[in-house]
Amino acid sequence: DVASGWSGEAKDCGNMCVGDPELKTLLRAIEDKPHVKGELAEVKLANAYPAAEEGVDLVDGDGLKEAEPLGPTYLTQMRVICVRSIKERRFERFNVDSIGTVIFMAVLCGVLWFQAGVGASLATYKGAGDVGALLFFLIAFMSFNLLFNSIFTFPNEKTMLLKERDAKMYPISAFFFARTLADIPMDLAIPIGATTVIYLMVGLKPTVGAFLLTQVVVVITCFTAASLGLLLGAAFLNLKRAQTAATIVMLTLMLTGGFFVQNIPVWLQWLPYLSYMSYGWDALLHIQLAGRVPACPPGEEDCAMLNMGTVKFDTLGPQFGIILLMMVVFRFGVYLSLRWGAKNNR
Known about the structure:
single chain; mainly alpha; two-stranded antiparallel ribbon; 13 helices; elongated
């Protein structure tokens, strides 16, 4: 039998005739010491590689045992998970329905508020109030869009996540940071595109600084909303429960954002300070209307829109800081939910 190394003439020989030199060495060792177990581990085959290169180790004379292979580095794990996440989510995030909805709403806003942000329109309190309403809608709509897309992330991956955690394929921190990095390019594209369309059609403040600041406010507000959506999805790992919780939380934040309700009951007056929409809307009002609208007396009904909102700052620094702090807190909550909460949702 050629495959086994026999020459086919062994039956005619007094001694065994073997064509494979490695098999010859092995058989000679058995013939010399047939009853000594474990000596096979000491047989050095002519073409054998060193044990360190083969990933095997010699143990206690019981034979050859495979050493446990070294796993990939932390950065490699992050890179693989990040690339996988982008490939999985790109068609889900940029499907025809999602992009079509955003484009339709952006164009509709541009038509309804067409050139409402030019200087002539802002010269009146009514025109300035219309722009204020648009800025709140921009914050609310983009937040809704990203939040409800984000809550699907972890419930849809629950089975895979639990299996990979049980197999100890990677630490949960590598999964968390990789998903965070993968979300950045996909969560940037739609808010920036929609805000650009609305900005140009409405005719908001025509300076590069104002345009860039508006984009930054919208982006960090959307990232905060997406972080909240991820937190709800990771906390429940159940799509129906996550959607229910997201609807309740989002409507609460919107109603207490300062646009719809002014006279909030005393025992609920702390809620507006938990709404990131309040800070985002105040920042946009400061960017677009500060110094461009006539002074508004406190009791003037025609400019009531400009006096709305519980959160009021004279500069942009506090709004940026608070929104970023909220985003970090929500992301940390996502990590904690993935780290400990997934074990209890099997």
